[in-house]
Amino acid sequence: MISIYQSGLIAAFICIIIAFISLYQETDDLHRLILTDLTEIMALLLIALIATDLAEALILPGLVVMIAELMALAEIYLVKEGIQRKKNSSALDIEVMQTAPPILAGILVLYGIILSGFSGGAVAGLGIIFYSVCKGSDELFAQIETASGYAWVAWIAAFFIFLLLPGQWFFAVMIAGGAILIKVMAKFSLIGTMGGDPGV
Amino acid sequence: MIRVFDQGIEGAGLFMIEFGDIVPYFSVYTATLFTFAIIFTLLATFSIPEKQMDIIFGGDAYYAKEIKPQDLRFQRFVAIACGTATLGAVVTGDIFNFTLFAAMIGITNIGIVASSRSHHVLNAAYQYGIVAMIACVPLFGGAAMILATTGTLSIWSLAGIGAAPILAKILLLLGVMGEGMAPFYIGKAEITRAQGAPFILMVHVSSLLLFLRVVEIILVI
Fold first, then answer.
1. CB contact under 8 A, B130 and A47
2. Which residue would you say has higher pLDDT here, B91 or B17?
3. By residue range, what is the domain housing residue B27?
4. Predicted local confidence at residue A17, as pLDDT
5. Do B107 and A68 touch (CB under 8 A)?
6. Which of B107, B123, B132 lies nearest to residue A80, judging by beta carbons?
């Protein structure tokens, strides 16, 4: 009878063999570097098979050492191939920054709306900063200003409800919470538009 | 109870801290390795780099290559870090810590080799780095298997009971072979006399001590 650990070990060794074969067949230096990352995950797999608290404590230093090696090798690769950063590109000119913003910003804004109020505004604003930093923000500016203005009006209106109709306090709290959310979000996202063109 | 010092390879026991599970200990064997590592770390700390001579073709002259201060500082730092990792590897009483120190020796060896800037040396450093990274799999895998089958990583408790599986020992040895392979690449790239010569020495010393230590661990557990 094979124990769970042994069957896991067999599965891990199959994965390791597949990774090694792929590494053996690959001749391009950069692709081999990426494949070594794959084999390192196999090492973490072997540690994780222990499945105790100690395994968790061992994975972290193992991961750190492996990432350090990966970074050192990536740096050597850059020097070796003479790759340098383009002069006119910004620090955020990474491919993932072109694809990730809609998803991440959407999640952040949604979570901010759920939080609502001041902290929700901060979270949602962070999402919009992220989006506008990555994607650029030409026409976004005016819309944010408009929304901010309406939010300010709604906030004041909520205070009038507090004073004139105290029985409707819950309605007023909801309006004020939503309005401050949009207000803080708009103020935050202005930071995101500052990085773009020099006039702002 | 003290089974470690009964093993043939260790020799007499000199020192131990019996506190908790993982027991750091010095036998004659590990103390020798430790002294050796300290001497060479100090040598790397206080030595001045050799300057490569270039003969001017067609003339009766030669000039010494300049080594930039930041290059020198980096090489010296990496050499000292390598020495420190070697010290850790020969002293530690924990198999996983040993594997971590071995991986650190691998990283610092990459640094020592890579700090000279010619293209073929960088190529050798890159190839060695890939080997060292792949070697992490058997290295950590061996340690993890020892932990999974015996329930401990302490060399002190594992000594002499022969509980560690032979496959785990083989994996550990394979991993150390990968990490300690730097001298081979140094020979391949012919950088023994290249820029930063005294620091290259640290690569050889750390590799040698790593092998001696893993032989001890495999024979003891």
1. no
2. B91
3. 4-220
4. 93
5. yes
6. B123
Residue predicted with more confidence, B118 or A167: A167
Residue A195 has pLDDT above 70, yes or no: no
Domain membership of residue A199 (yes or no) is: no
Is there a single domain that holds both residue A63 and residue A112? no
| pLDDT tens for each residue of A169-191 | 888 988 888 888 888 888 777 76
Structure tokens at B186: 């140094």
| Burial (CB count within 10 angstroms: exposed 0-12, middle 13-18, buried 19+), residue A195 | middle
More confident residue, A197 or B40: B40
How far off is chain A from B60, nearest CA to CA, in Å? 34
**CA angle A71-A73-A77, nearest 5°?**
115
Same domain, A45 and A75: yes
Mean pLDDT (whole number) for B201-215 = 91
Mark whether A77 and A100 lie in a shared domain.
Answer: no
DSSP states of B49-72 as a string?
----EEEETTTTEEEEPP--HHHH
Residue A34 in contact with partner chain B when CB distance is under 8 A: no
Measure CB to CB from residue A47 to each of B104, B107, B140 and give the nearest one.
B140
Number of domains in chain B: 1
pTM for this entry: 0.73
Please, what is the average pLDDT of chain A? 82
A29:B125 CB<8 A: no
Q: Which of A49, A50, A61 faces B100 most closely, judged by CB atoms? A: A61
Tokens 């490569």 — which residue? Answer: B52
Q: How far is A86 from chain B (nearest CA, A)?
A: 22
> What is the extent of the structural domain holding A133?
96-194
- Which pLDDT belongs to residue A199? 44
A96 Rama class: left (phi>0) / alpha (psi -120 to 50) / beta: alpha
